[in-house]
Each structure stands twice: as C-alpha cells, then as structure tokens.
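Dear all,

This email documents one entry for the complex benchmark we are building for the journal club exercise. For each entry we list the sequence lines for every component of the assembly. Then comes the predicted three-dimensional structure of the complex as a token string, followed by one or two observations. Please use this as the template for your own entries, and keep the labels exactly as they appear.
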Amino acid sequence: SQKIEQNSEALNIQEGKTATLTCNYTNYSPAYLQWYRQDPGRGPVFLLLIRENEKEKRKERLKVTFDTTLKQSLFHITASQPADSATYLCALVGNTGKLIFGQGTTLQVKP
Amino acid sequence: EADIYQTPRYLVIGTGKKITLECSQTMGHDKMYWYQQDPGMELHLIHYSYGVNSTEKGDLSSESTVSRIRTEHFPLTLESARPSHTSQYLCASSDDSQVSYEQYFGPGTRLTVT
C-alpha cells in the first residue's frame, strides 16, 4: 500500500537557521507533491506544490525539492523565525486530485 | 483565510446520540472532502464529493454518512455516536480549475464521545 513517512520526532532549531524537513514515500509515483502548514487546533494551509518534472520550487523563504528517483521531497525554511513554529505536512496528489497525507513533522524555532 | 466554515468547533456528546457536523464554503468549489485526524497522525480521507448529488467513500472506512444537496454545503452525520468516533474532523474544498490542486480547509470540529 502507499506509504508516506515524515520525521515523527519534532525538529528544534535556533532562530535564523535553516530548517529542513523530509518526506519519503513508497509504492506510489505521484505527478505532484504538496506541502501544508498546520497550527494547533486549525486546518492545514497550503504552501507549495511541486511537479514531478520540477527539481526545485521556491516561494519567499521556502524551498521544496522533489527527487522522484529517491522518492523524496525536502522542505527548507531559510532564516527561520519563531512564527514558523508549526506542523508541516506533505501530501501526494493522486490522479483525481485526492490527497494522501503524511503524519507531519512539528517544527519548533527557538528565539 | 479560506471561506470555509465548520460548526460546531467542539462537541462533547454521549454514546448513542445522533450528530451532524456542518461544513459550508462560499467559494463555489465543486469538490469537497471530509478528513479524520487523530493527534499526531495523518489526515485520512473518509468522504468526498465532486458536486451536487455526488458522494463517495474515502480511503478510511467510516460509519458516518454525508450528503451534498447544495454546492456550498457538505454535512457529515453519525447516526449513533460511539467513543471510537472521538477525533478531529476536517472539511476541505478545492477548485478544479486550479492547477495547484490546493485544498482549502476549515478549522475543524473536535468531537468527543463519552
């Protein structure tokens, strides 16, 4: 069955550093992969989509890579700020637009 | 903020009660979804709809049912609540014309069945 793995342990970093989150998947060949941010008690908020033919995508301080050979996506936040503290979810996009989510990685940025 | 609303935000109810979780969106999206999420776990799709009078079960089996009589409204009903139904329920919608496949989520309903 399809499986998505994100680091289950929380990631703690110092303000100003680059946070790197990992999303690995198996038994699937998605054409698209998305990243969402989820704050406690709230619904996820879309951040970025990357296509299978794109190696890298950037948006402000965010950078996403997509390696279809390794079946892995990396999500980077540069110059991290305490306000970036949240849970970050990756999601594979199926043919019909349905999403398959990972369990998320919690990021804590300390001042 | 996305224009998608869920009520109630929190619900504590006894076993055996019938409940309906409300979800409405004002964006005119055809596609709507219900997810179930336990703490620290992934979102699981339990129902989806591609338009009025269209509903399908998702990947995670659920005893709940849904209806889609109006584009903007996608309620979820549990005929007889059980403690195993305790979870966070998230509603989402998406626009077919968007190439990003972005889903817009409501704030969720946290359900506790005692």
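Observations: The two ends of chain A are 41 Å apart (CA to CA). The mean pLDDT of chain A is 93.
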